[in-house]
Amino acid sequence: MITDIAIQKNKRALINNPVFSILIPTWNNLAYLKLCIESIRKNSQLQNQIIVHINESKDGTLEWIQSQPDIDYTFSEKNIGICYALNIARELISSEYILYMNDDMYACPGWDKVLWEEIKKMGTKYFFLSGTAIEPMDQHNPCVVVKDFGTDIQSFQEQRLLKEFANQPINDWQGSTWPPNVVHRDVWDLVGGYSIEFSPGMYSDPDFSMKLWMMGIRLFKGIGNSRVYHFGSRSTKRVRKNNGYYRFIQKWGMTSSTLTKYYLRRGQPFDGPLQSPNISIGTKCKNLFQRLQTALKKH
């Protein structure tokens, strides 16, 4: 139980009026975390707050973060997963905008300014934005730029990435879901952050998007020119996964793919606020079958 786990919260960085509060959960992934934070320091154009939640720290992460006075942090002596980590880290934010980033991402130059310029143009706090990831392997994801600049730190070609990242074509896209993503803190608080029933985290991203949809948000926009390099799943490959697929069905009465395909239209060219979807008969039947199957699994 999380109530049995000691939690530390340390807000010490003196940053006036940051644009984004960047939340980074990490779990014994120090080499990638260092690269991620260094990229934010080098390649950001705005003044941002960095908040790291440290899960467990068997690899020296806590000691390294403590030696970095420009980073605020929270710490749990055991791995409490992404959902609890993000909700705890939220308590330290200093800005209006909460930005969630994975610890195995490298922020490309100007990534934050592009997001900020988009937010100013929107003129509303009711939105959900994502940056665009560049990934080394093709996983048939229409929201990702596929270009191999290294599959791990040892093979990472940083200088080549810096020269070529902006040359990879992709337009703004519908269906913001995963990190790096940004919401206004009022929106985050209204839906209660990330849902702990999805701990340690699988399917918590589409669940968060569904909560935003239910509160009436229709701007789910992926920004093509805000880019990060993503090594991919450095923590999820190691963690014992929750059965988020059926949890999502149990909670929302549909599969997560119904949300991403019909509601969010994920990966399609951005053409404005989303509209209520027209769900095919076949998809409705599939969702009914999955609800029944989920109900049977409970017993």
Structure, briefly:
This protein is α/β, with parallel strands linked by helices and 299 residues long. The protein has helices spanning 30-43, 61-66, 81-89, 111-122, 158-164, 185-191, 204-214, 244-252, 256-263, 281-298; strands spanning 7-10, 20-27, 49-55, 71-76, 97-100, 105-107, 128-135, 145-146, 173-174, 181-184, 220-230. It has one domain: Spore Coat Polysaccharide Biosynthesis Protein SpsA, Chain A, CATH 3.90.550.10.
The total count of helices amounts to: 10
Task: Quickly give the structural class.
Answer: alpha/beta
- Predict the CATH topology: Spore Coat Polysaccharide Biosynthesis Protein SpsA, Chain A
Report the top-level CATH class: Alpha Beta
Distance between the termini: 24 Å
CATH architectural group: Alpha-Beta Complex
Q: What is the residue-averaged pLDDT?
A: 93
Q: Sheet with the most strands?
A: 11 strands, mixed
Poorly predicted residue ranges: none
CATH superfamily heading: Spore Coat Polysaccharide Biosynthesis Protein SpsA, Chain A
Radius of gyration: 19 Å
Strand-residue proportion = 15-25%
Number of separate strands: 11
Number of separate domains: 1
Topology as a string of helices (H) and strands (E): EEHEHEHEEHEEHEEHHEHHH
Please tell me what the overall shape is: globular
Helix content: 25-40%
